[in-house]
Amino acid sequence: MYAQASAKIELPSYLPQNPAPFFEGPATPVSFFPAGAEIYAQGEKAGALYQVEFGAVRIYRLLADGRRQISAFHLAGETFGFESDATHHFFAEAINATGVRVFRAPSGTDMSRQLLPLALKGLTRAQEHLLVLGRQNAIERVAAFLVEMSERQGGLQQVELPMSRNDIGDYLGLTIETVSRVLTRLKEKGVIRLLSLRSIEILKRDTLLAMGE
Amino acid sequence: MYAQASAKIELPSYLPQNPAPFFEGPATPVSFFPAGAEIYAQGEKAGALYQVEFGAVRIYRLLADGRRQISAFHLAGETFGFESDATHHFFAEAINATGVRVFRAPSGTDMSRQLLPLALKGLTRAQEHLLVLGRQNAIERVAAFLVEMSERQGGLQQVELPMSRNDIGDYLGLTIETVSRVLTRLKEKGVIRLLSLRSIEILKRDTLLAMGE
DNA sequence: CGTCACGTTGAGTAGATTCAATTGAGGTGG
DNA sequence: CCACCTCAATTGAATCTACTCAACGTGACG
């Protein structure tokens, strides 16, 4: 739907037409985070930008009673950590062993040109996710998730899920049991195949796409 | 929670520290949209920016079968319409009689410095809304909504709701009936009072805040 | 080979939805 | 200015989807 016509993506006039490469300065070191390690916490002072080198990161928020909503997963190559003020509003954790390049803009540097496209991309993705959480049922949510992960990994048949069922549930606003049941149903319908716990194969892409609308 | 300490909001170093006024050029005309009028549609070519002069706007997406998710409301003073590429991914409609200032940046203009703070603000708001849709029950959602609307109107006791129950439902991922039932319950509990259909008074702000977490 | 965390499956429940009927508010025309 | 009309909102009853709680499997790892 609404397919991008050409290879070259057209941009609105208010965006820089020749986006600058993101990191130009001296090479910044890569920090390593083991599985489950906190990268930053809600309430902490923000300021740095983070680029995933390898592994995967979850961004989430907690309610007082422990309910958790994961607002985004970030895979290799993606940048996260920017905030609208000097405080982090979310938690960021490494899902698996993860390498992250931490970049701190020198005081006074204006990164707007580099950051705006990323912020807009994140905004679009968040808004699309709102539709999933607000108006789709369990099967549709899981289908949309599998399609999203597939597309972010190049649209291959085989999709790697770096995160646990628990993470998937907290991303989709479902319980771990419901996620499991839906995957079983999709498997029984012949839509997907479970290669291993964290690796699935998409057998009927069209069906999956139709489910996720 | 995580209160902003001083009047002057501290910003991360990667943001412009002295944000430029948004519109500097020659005064742009104000377009008028009657209630329900479309401002732009999904799939249309994007490019302009819109600032609400008076009235209110809803931003939404549709599923094939007509289910609708409103991702944001925009009130007087707010800016919307920016996209990550040249296509609108959402619909924008006037909720009531609404005046909108349409601004088209001349080709080649880089509005990053002005837009980034708005995009980041929108991103934060969308991500917070994800928590509401993903992990909160009906009462919590409505409470969070009322608190949000109150704060966006200056934190007064009396809150104007420019939108219908239908719009509220499609924003909160609930049916119109559920929204109505919850409002009745809040009324019975003495938390709010209905001055008219679209105007409520908050009697127990603390209770409401605690419900919305 | 045993342990432990993670995942799956099952039964019963709760909360929100659906469908239907009623009430109420706002706007229009006489 | 009032009566009427229409659409929006509220209320009620029955249903259904996803959740909760519990038991059971399974894969990874020492």
TrEMBL record, chains A, B:
Domain HTH crp-type: 136-206
Domain of life: Bacteria
SUPFAM superfamilies from the UniProt entry: cAMP-binding domain-like, Winged helix' DNA-binding domain
Signal peptide: none
SMART domains registered for this protein in UniProt: HTH_CRP
CDD domains, A to Z: CAP_ED (cd00038), HTH_CRP (cd00092)
Domain Cyclic nucleotide-binding residue range list: 33-81
InterPro entries: cNMP-bd_dom (IPR000595), cNMP-bd_dom_sf (IPR018490), Env_Response_Regulators (IPR050397), HTH_CRP (IPR012318), RmlC-like_jellyroll (IPR014710), Tscrpt_reg_HTH_Crp-type_CS (IPR018335), WH-like_DNA-bd_sf (IPR036388), WH_DNA-bd_sf (IPR036390)
Keywords from the UniProt entry: DNA-binding, Transcription, Transcription regulation
Pfam families: cNMP_binding (PF00027), HTH_Crp_2 (PF13545)
Record field: transmembrane: none
Protein name (database record): Helix-turn-helix domain-containing protein
Organism, scientific name: Mesorhizobium humile
Upper lineage: Bacteria, Pseudomonadati, Pseudomonadota, Alphaproteobacteria, Hyphomicrobiales
